[in-house]
Write a structure and sequence with these properties.
Strand order of the largest sheet: 7-6-5-8-9-13-10
Largest sheet: 7 strands, mixed
Radius of gyration: 19 Å
Number of helices: 8
Helix content: 25-40%
Structural class: alpha/beta
Oligomer: single chain
Distance between the termini: 32 Å
Order of helices and strands: EEEEEHEHEEHEHHEEHHHEE
Shape: elongated
């Protein structure tokens, strides 16, 4: 559930190993990491907004660049701690939260101060210079609660920096799911979506309603290879849609979804590319904020 910048920099494209355009990213190289054939983490993700971490001219430490830290950062939806660990190597003090006990344990094994916590019910007092979230906010359907928790966690002047799935994300896959349900005489919304993909106007309104000043916000396509195909992607990310089927019927359902997705998502060479759309923003809590 993760992705980063293109060879041209912001806004972004599929994984590659490229330098951050801003020249001040927490990673010298911004590229993809794959688990089980699915892209789950990509490096840069606008982390250059997490200043004033300072960088030297070297590129030692597997991607960190002579960083001097001092910032305290909250990683919302930290997963296994891959990015949180990189921020720590850059000299930041990082607290990560996630609802998965298994992922929190993995993050702790990396040396991250990770805690089991629902982002829609964060309990932090103001104390963070930045709140960061990568490829997680779209899994949180009550996004106003997350924004409110980020606001409370930030010091005045702090930044809220996010990349997540945006409006139009995986439309091709969702259409395949709807057709496969319809073929079985089921309404398309028989299983509530576990995701909410906001667009720019919606997210800007939510942020500004809470008091944030939006510095940058953009929605952009990032076609993303699926090495394990649509079936592999669904098996990892779409448990809610598959849970009601037994093993035999689940395979039939996956086959149908794959066929419905084929015209839009399979390339002439037989490879699969998902129609990812990402929403990326950086917003600031005003220095004058009193809560």
């Amino acid at each position: 559930m993760r992705s980063g910048p293109s060879r041209a920099g912001f806004p972004g494209s599929p994984a590659g190993s490229v330098s951050c355009r801003a020249g001040r990213c927490l990673f010298f190289f911004c590229g993809g990491r794959y688990e089980g054939g699915i892209e789950t983490v990509v490096g840069c993700v606008f982390l250059c907004q997490l200043r004033p971490v300072r960088f030297g001219t070297g590129h030692a430490g597997g991607g960190t660049s002579g960083a001097e830290g001092g910032e305290r950062i909250l990683d919302v939806g930290c997963g296994d701690g891959f990015l949180a660990q990189r921020m720590q190597l850059a000299g930041c003090e990082v607290v990560g939260i996630d609802t998965s006990r298994e992922l929190v344990a993995a993050a702790r094994a990396r040396g991250v101060d990770a805690r089991v916590m629902n982002a829609e019910a964060m309990t932090f007092a103001p104390g963070f210079d930045a709140v960061f979230s990568n490829a997680a906010l779209h899994w949180m359907r009550r996004q106003d609660r997350v924004i409110d928790g980020a606001w409370r966690a930030l010091k005045p002047g702090g930044r809220f920096v996010v990349e997540c799935g945006g409006k139009g994300n995986i439309d091709g896959i969702l259409n395949g799911l709807k057709k496969a349900f319809a073929r079985r005489g089921l309404e398309p919304d028989v299983v509530p979506s576990p995701w909410h993909f906001a667009g720019v106007p919606e997210m800007r309104q939510r942020l500004e309603a809470r008091g944030f000043v939006v510095q940058e916000i953009a929605l952009f396509g990032r076609p993303t290879p699926l090495p394990a195909g649509v079936e592999g992607w669904l098996s990892v990310f779409a448990h809610d849609f598959l849970a009601s089927f037994d093993a035999e019927n689940r395979k039939d359902f996956l086959d149908d979804v794959t066929e419905y997705c084929r015209p839009a998502l399979m390339k002439p060479d037989g490879s699969w590319v998902a129609d990812y759309v990402r929403l990326r923003f950086s917003a600031t809590k005003p220095v004058t904020a009193d809560d």
